Amino acid sequence: MELSCKSEYAILALLEMTSDYQSGEPQQIRQIAAKQNIPDRYLEQLLATLRRGGIVKSQRGSKGGYLLAREPWKITIFEILGCLEGLDQVRTCEDEVDPKALDSKVIEEIWQEARQAANSVLQNCTLADLCEKRNSRKHLDIMYYI
After folding, report:
1. pTM recorded for the entire structure
2. Mean of per-residue pLDDT scores for the chain
3. Domains of the chain (ranges, CATH numbers)
């Protein structure tokens, strides 16, 4: 269970939108890409996928761009990853007498438990939570020199 580059870029872009959520102003792809060091064309594809998934919305025009479709505290990381990567399909094996099939079933069960635990964490973490963690760490990193 690793975070793909695609998902990491998407979450970085969404964090950027979360930071400016209160302003209500859409952000342009080139602004987000420059701030988060994401290739423009790739970000464009990611945001199109997120728009189709109902996570962001686009606004046309000279002052257009992308906005979060809902409040950041209502968008979970699980939802974002599901939109980009799809949800894992659980494979079921029929009970067989073969000892290798039994071993595989035990391995599959423990993997399913791990997946459920990870999904639980991701379902309980929102964009607002990530933004809050980031901001609190920024404040901790500030050093004052006399």
Report:
1. 0.80
2. 87
3. 5-141 (1.10.10.10)
